Please model this.
Amino acid sequence: MVRGDTLEHLVPSPAEARAWQVIRALAGYARRTATDPPQGHGSRPGGAAAGTPLAMRFADTAGRRWTWRPDQGWVAEPPAADPVERDLLDLYLPLCVPVVDGCRMTAHLGQSLDGYIATANGDSCFVTGPDNIRHLHRMRALSDGVLVGTETAARDDPRLTTRLVPGANPVRIILDRQRRLGSHLRVFNDGAAATLLCCDRAYVTAGRDRQGQARVIGLPIHDGRLDLIALAETLAELGLRRIFVEGGGATVSAFLTAGLLDRLQIAVAPLLIGTGRPGLRIPAPERLADARRPAARLFRMGADLLYDLDLRRGSTAAPLTPVTRIL
Model:
């Protein structure tokens, strides 16, 4: 995870601004339609999620007509001509889908070429560059909730807001099994967005249902850890359907191991740390042939490369088709 506290000066290009306006509009339309499907649209056939609209259509300010197609996602007529705008749409539109059952979870890690997300003493500012940091803020804006673990919250004291891009702040979700975090952290006091502190339900007693301004939610424990499946069910019940798991490495690894992630994004920076805190820590196969090889796309963000992995599509032997524009 990285912080963007000193990057408010970043100014998007006109093409970026146009693309982001469309992306936000389509995400909002998909969210509203999933919650309250248009009359007469019915449900998707073929075993698809009940209540998902058969047809969604949207016209943007440039006069393009957008149509939702279950097998393709959002399709524009005519398509975007500007390469910067097209690349941004390619990256973010897969996230702008109706979610009517459960949660759709995307995680992100920023790491060095040698696979570390921080130095041995926890210094992680900044592993990736400003373009990737702005990407994190866009991901927050497209999500209902942004989630970090105890170590990330304690070490970085992040705000988890969308201050670098236009868009509403998501609900901030902090995992703290033993409720060790202090109430001085900004997420508990700044009032910038609603915040949930999720801990072992044994620590939620009478009169202890708040942490500063944050609501405390108790969860069951499984194998000595918070039950992440129960967490996902709780978030869905609260109406939080799109969750962005922003860090840190142990938290992202836990969600990946539990099979709860739909997408995993790994940003690789041209940086050599030598030793430090690793990114993913997941059960290893005995044979390389058994290692997961998710469907992947590659995007350039300044000097960094972002691997966008679709974990629900399964493995693919097809080569990556990189997008070479700076996002």
About this structure: Residues 13-27+54-98 form one domain. Helices lie at 14-35, 83-92, 130-141, 150-156, 228-237, 249-257. The first strand starts at residue 57 and ends at 59. Confidence is low (pLDDT under 50) at residues 1-5, 37-54.
